[in-house]
Predict the 3D structure of the following.
Amino acid sequence: MRKRTPIVLFLLAFFFNSYAQTATLRGSANSAENQEGMQGVNVVLAGSGHGTITGLHGKYCLEDIPTGRQTLIFSYIGFETREVELDFQDGEEVVFDVSLLPGSVDLSAVTIEARRPVSAASSKAIRDYDLLLKPVKSSQDLLQLVPGLVIAQHAGGGKAEQIFMRGFDADHGTDVAIHVDGLPVNMVTHGHGQGYADLHFIIPEIIENLEVNKGPYFARYGNFATAGSVNMTTTDHPDKNLVKMEGGMFNTARATTVLKIPTSGDHQSAYIAGQYYYTDGAVENPQGFQRANLFGKFHTHLTPKSELGLVMGAFSSAWNASGQIPRRAIDNGQITRWGSIDPLEGGVTGRYNVAVDYHFMEGYEHDFQIQAFISTYDFRLYSNFTYWLNDPIDGDMIEQTDHRNIHGINARYSFYKPLGIVRTFTRIGATYRGDNIDLSLWKSPDRNRMSPMTDHSVSEKNIAFWLEEDLVFGRIFKIQLGIRGDYFTFDVRDHLDYDGFPDNGLPHGSGYAQSAMLSPKLNMVLSPLEDLDIYLNGGLGFHSNDARDVILSGKNLDPEFADITTLPRATGAELGLRITPGERILLSVAGWYLHLEEELVFIGDEGTTEISGETRRIGLDTELRLQLAKWIWADLDLNFSDGRYLHESDGANYIPLAPRLSSQGGLNFLHPSGIEGSARYRYIGDRPANEDNSIVATGYGIVNLILAYRFKGFRIFSQIENLLNATWNEAQFDTESRLYNETLPVSELHFTPGNPINFQAGVSYEF
């Protein structure tokens, strides 16, 4: 202990001397092009890990700067980084305004973050960097910017994508929380599946920021944020108007517009964006998939430190689907790979959002935001997964419906305060969400309603409070403590739960339940070297169960349900490294563990409930970013995972469809001459399709190529999807089904075929 005492005293003296005599820096960061203030610019004291970001009108304030000559770094992705040397005296307040010149997308700007990430797998700067470089033309492309996240579509393009991430087949969003402009995308107690997340209401051209946080380590994210969370933000100020037209094979066409609206004030902006999309797909029975999106946003600065925003959006779509087809039907020549057993599958859906947002921000020191939102949502889906298994005469087509109104409030306040040698950054938040839902399941052969299987009205509410406290001990060490408390109420009315309703073999019941959960979090960052960060993360999270399951389990209709929890607990931990050996290379590696309690799963396709056992998942995520030249970038994401049921015998404990190996990466170039291009690949390995791995979901790898040329506001582009014309299966399931001419059912792999080579081209004009 005596040997360690001088070291401890030295460190204390170092911290004390660093911050005993300090000064303050204030100013603004502006664009050299138009002299407008730039929000979100990093202002960092070189070599210290101490920094801030600019707020409204580009204003910033950085306190606790050690006296003497110091180097300040101003950085923003897409602009040239500036380093400035300034002299500071004790107690002095220095005013300095800086102008940033537009420049190339430089990886070095990513490594300079005022708000350093607290996990190796989470960095807003890297996601913004990816968003700028990687081609995005759809909501699916936005999701695939998330390293380790794989999606699959199996209902004609209009249904929410199936999501795979960190050893989860998250269905349509059960274990991945998704938000857009603060609005929740995941649907609780949905007619098709818990956590259903339909992102088709997004117009990708107006998405400005993408934030990804993996694991249950962040207090501000609650329900469904077990494997991780994805947060997207639309732009407040489009740089230019946009008109874009594109089309190609399979009778595909897309038209997009973003039009700025003149306003009366210098610090106001308003715009309208619209998109129309149509495709028949590669299948023999045309999908006739049509989607229309409309989005409007008004943004005004009430004062130099406050702003008000209004967002309105509408989306509607309809489609036909060829469904998931059985392998044996292709092998015996009944259909081709692009055929269909029941061509009447399909659906219609829509969502309509209104949100009002007030925001007060003063650099790093004070940041208050409150938002109120309302959403209306409609959904109708026709599916036939088993063909003639249950009804050998009329067939097994079902109809699922969901109509709901969602309302909610999000509020948060953050502030900065020095406490001696420690700098603190506090975030406090509260959320409320209420869903009023009408949902049903019908037996509907040939889309004609025959009889109801389930019919419910549900009121589900969630109130949450959360706190995150960052403690920064100089450049070397940072710790974040978090706590989140959630309270749920479930009120279910079963319209078929009455005397005289004929027994249809499904459980029925009405009732009320409530549940609460407290979720602590801990994140630590150790930076022994300027180019090395070591992360340790841990935390508890959850995803809620379907309200119908909660009520049925509370009624003890089945002894197996006796020990089921309403909010199954997720326990996660992670150890990661982030290495930046040079300005043009960044490597992140994270090893992680996630345990999930036993849970109930409401099978929306059948109106029944099944128990999914306790699980354990472990894995390794790797991200590599390289800048090969000033206009050439490369990236590689490699993800390994292993998921098992804990209380099943070896060989029968596989988690169906859980990804084990996935990877994506490629080359992107933006030449000053206007020539642009991207060559990218996506890969997922074989994985078990059932618990004993007797049926395997086959892996695939596909390559996409984009070439474009910019000149005088125009951009001419072409894209080839599946360049090598690989034969691949997109969505895959082990399903028991019976074809019309079969006497016995067969359990085997059913799948939707991935698209063959697909050529699209278009032109856009910015003005």
Notes: The first strand starts at residue 22 and ends at 31. The two ends are 69 Å apart (CA to CA).
